[in-house]
DNA sequence: TTGAAAGCGCTAACAT
DNA sequence: ATGTTAGCGCTTTCAA
C-alpha cells in the first residue's frame, strides 16, 4: 500500500474553516438574507427563479444552517427529549424505535438521555435537556425526584411518562399497569394448579416496575391463600447465565418449588435452559413464566411463557401525543393511555 | 380512589409560563446579569456573598439556563453527535455505553442519531446534527455518501469513524479490521480440519463490515485452495429463529457441509440450537462459528465459537479522542486505533 | 470583584 | 415577492 492513498481528507484543510452563515449565501447569491432564510425553510412566497438561485449557491458553498441561532430567534426547537434508564436492557431500544418511527415523518427529532436507573442522574440529565428547550419530553416511569417533577411541571412543555401507569403522572402517561400484569400472571399460574411459587428478579428498589409486578403478583396469590415460597434477587444487567445461577440457587434452597416467576425474559430463558439441561420436566415438574415478550424467546427449544408488554407501541403512542401537542396548541394535555399486556402461554405454563 | 388524588400537576399551571431568563434572576437577586452568568458557570471571580445570593435565588425561582442562547453567544456546544445504523442490533447500544461512560466524566454529552443502515438517511441525520454545531462526531463505518464525507470534512469538527478500519477515514478511526477478522476465523476453521464450509449472513450491500469479513474469509480459504460451498442470506433484524430457518435451509440444500460461519452471534446461536434439536453432533459432524462476542452466548447449553469485537472499548476510545481534541486544541487529528479481535474457541469449533 | 455594551446567526414583524 | 429592522438570551470584551 502506497502512502499517498491513505492521506486523510483533513490534510487539505488549512484553517478550521469558519462555518458559513446565511450572510455568505446571501452575498454569493445576491439575494437578501431574509429571502435566503425563507428559501431554506420553505416559508413564504419566493419566486422560482430566486429559489433555485439560492438553493444552488447554498449547495455549492456547502452551507449548513445554524439551528442554534434559528432556535433562539424563532423560539422553536424541533427536539424531543427522551430519558430512559438504560440502553443495555433491550426493552428501551424497542421503545426508542417506536418513537423514531413516528417522529421520522415529522419535523421533530428525538434526543436520548440515559440515567442508569439513578434518580439523581435522571435529574441531571433532565436539567441538561430542558436547558435546550425541547418541544416535548418522554421519560420512563412515574417515579422521579421532587426536583425533577418540579422542573417538568414548570417547563411548560408536553411531558409523557411511559412504561408504567400505576401512579400520578405529571402530564400524560402511556404504558401498562404492572400491578395488573403481576396479578394476571398470578391468576394464570394458580389456574394451572401450581402452588409452590418462587420469584426471581432484580433488587426491587432499583426497578419500580418489577416491584409493582411483584406486588400485584403476591396480592393476587394472597387472595387465594397462596404465598410466595422463596425469592432470589440480583444486581446489574440481565443475562442467560445469571438466570441459570439464580435458578440453581433458589431450587437448591427450596426444592419443593413447582413454579418460577421471573421478572424478565432474559433471566427466565436462562433458567429454562438450565432446567432443561438438568432434565427437569417443564412444565410438569416445574412451570415457568417471565415478562416482556422479547423475540429472543422465539428460537429457544421450547417457548417460555411471558407477557408481551407492547414496548414498540408504547413508544409510538407517546411520540404521537407529543406530535399532536406540537401541531395543535389546543390538543389535550394529561392524556392517559393504558395498554393491555397479553399473556403468551407458551410451553412452560400450562400443565399438559 | 377519589378524584382529587389524580388531578395532574399541570392543572395548577395557568399560562404556559414564559421560561425564566438570566434577567429574572438578576432582578430578583439585585445582581447584574453578567455576574449571575458568572456564578452559574463558575467562571471568573465572584465574592462568596454574591455567589450564594445568586445561587439561592436561581434555585428558588427554578431557573433553567437557556443553552441555546449560551451556545450562540459562546460558540460552544457541549454535544457529541453519534450516528449509528440501528438500536435493535445489540452491538450499538454497547458502543453507546462505552461512549457515555467516558463522556459522563466530562462536560460533553452524546446525542444519538439512527440511520437504519441507509446512507441517504445517514446524510440527512448528519446534516441535521451538524446544524447544531456539535463539538465532535462519532459515526459508524467508513462508507458514506459523497455529500456526507464532504460535510464531515468541511465541518471543522473532530470526526471519529468507528467499528471498521478497512478504508480511508475522514479524520480519526477506531475499530477492528473486519477483513482480518474474517481471515483469522478462516484459518482457525481450516486448522481444525473442516473443508466443506457454508456462510450465513445479512444481504451484503446493507452491511459493509459483514461483507469485509466475508471477503477476508474467502480470501484466506482460497489461499488454501478451499471455497465456500454454499451461502444463505437474510434481510431485516437478526433473531434466533431466523438463524434456525437459515441453517435448516442451507443444510437441506447442501448436506455435505461440515462447517457453518455466521455473520453474527444471534443467528449463530439460533443455528446452534437448531442443530442440537436435530441431534447433530457439534462440532464433530458440523462445526460452528459466529461473530461479536455478545454475552447472550454465555448461558446457552454449549458455547458457540465467536470473535469478540470489543465494542464497548471502541466506544470508549472514540469518545476519548473527541474529548482530547476538545480539551486541547493541539491534540492530534487523524488518529488511527485498530483493536485486535479475539477468537473465542468455545465448544463448536475445535474437533475433539 | 462587578458592570455596560456589543453581538453571536438567525427569524418575526413589519415595510415596500 | 423581497427587503429592513429589531431582537431572541446569553457571553465576550472591555471598562470601572
Outline of this structure?
The first copy, chain A, has 352 residues and is of the alpha/beta class. Chain A has helices spanning 22-29, 33-41, 48-61, 67-74, 91-103, 119-130, 146-155, 178-191, 208-223, 240-253, 265-277, 311-327; strands spanning 79-84, 109-114, 136-140, 159-164, 172-176, 197-202, 228-234, 259-262, 287-289, 306-308, 336-338, 342-344.
Describe the model.
Two copies of one chain form a homodimer. The first copy, chain A, is of the alpha/beta class and 352 residues long. Chain A has three domains: 65 residues, Orthogonal Bundle (434 Repressor (Amino-terminal Domain)), CATH 1.10.260.40; 129 residues, Response regulator (Rossmann fold); 131 residues, Rossmann fold. A six-stranded parallel beta sheet of chain A has the order 2-1-3-4-5-11. In chain A, helix 8 packs across helix 9. The longest helix of chain A has 17 residues. The N and C termini of chain A lie far apart (66 Å). The first copy, chain A, binds a DNA duplex (16 and 16 nucleotides) through helix 2 and helix 4.
Amino acid at each position: 500500500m502506497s502512502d499517498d492513498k491513505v492521506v486523510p481528507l483533513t490534510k487539505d484543510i488549512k484553517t478550521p474553516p469558519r462555518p458559513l452563515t446565511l450572510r455568505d449565501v446571501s452575498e454569493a447569491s445576491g439575494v437578501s438574507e431574509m429571502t435566503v432564510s425563507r428559501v431554506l425553510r420553505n416559508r413564504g412566497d419566493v419566486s422560482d427563479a430566486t429559489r433555485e438561485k439560492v438553493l444552488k449557491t447554498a449547495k455549492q458553498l456547502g452551507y449548513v444552517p445554524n439551528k442554534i441561532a434559528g432556535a433562539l430567534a424563532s423560539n422553536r426547537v424541533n427536539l424531543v427529549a427522551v430519558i430512559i434508564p438504560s440502553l443495555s436492557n433491550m426493552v428501551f431500544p424497542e421503545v426508542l424505535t417506536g418513537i423514531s418511527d413516528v417522529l421520522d415523518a415529522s419535523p421533530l427529532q428525538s434526543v436520548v438521555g440515559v440515567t442508569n436507573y439513578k434518580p439523581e442522574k435522571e435529574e441531571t440529565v433532565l436539567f441538561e435537556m430542558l436547558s435546550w428547550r425541547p418541544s416535548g419530553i418522554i421519560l420512563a416511569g412515574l417515579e422521579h425526584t421532587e426536583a425533577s417533577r418540579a422542573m417538568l411541571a414548570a417547563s411548560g412543555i408536553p411531558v409523557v411518562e411511559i412504561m408504567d401507569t400505576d401512579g400520578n403522572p405529571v402530564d400524560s402517561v402511556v404504558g401498562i399497569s404492572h400491578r395488573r400484569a403481576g396479578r394476571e400472571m398470578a391468576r394464570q399460574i394458580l389456574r394451572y394448579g401450581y402452588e409452590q411459587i418462587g420469584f426471581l428478579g432484580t433488587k426491587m428498589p432499583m426497578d419500580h416496575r418489577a416491584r409493582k409486578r411483584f406486588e400485584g403478583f403476591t396480592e393476587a396469590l394472597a387472595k387465594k391463600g397462596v404465598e410466595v415460597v422463596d425469592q432470589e434477587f440480583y444486581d446489574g444487567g440481565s443475562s442467560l447465565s445469571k438466570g441459570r445461577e439464580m435458578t440453581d440457587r433458589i431450587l437448591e434452597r427450596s426444592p419443593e418449588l413447582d413454579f418460577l416467576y421471573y421478572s424478565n425474559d432474559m433471566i427466565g430463558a436462562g433458567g429454562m435452559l438450565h432446567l432443561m439441561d438438568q432434565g427437569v420436566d417443564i412444565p410438569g415438574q416445574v412451570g415457568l413464566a417471565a415478562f416482556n415478550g422479547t423475540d429472543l424467546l422465539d428460537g429457544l427449544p421450547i417457548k417460555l411463557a411471558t407477557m408481551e408488554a407492547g414496548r414498540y407501541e408504547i413508544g409510538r403512542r407517546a411520540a404521537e401525543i407529543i406530535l399532536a401537542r406540537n401541531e395543535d396548541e389546543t390538543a389535550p394535555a394529561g392524556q392517559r393511555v393504558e395498554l393491555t399486556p397479553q399473556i403468551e402461554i407458551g410451553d412452560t405454563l400450562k400443565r399438559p
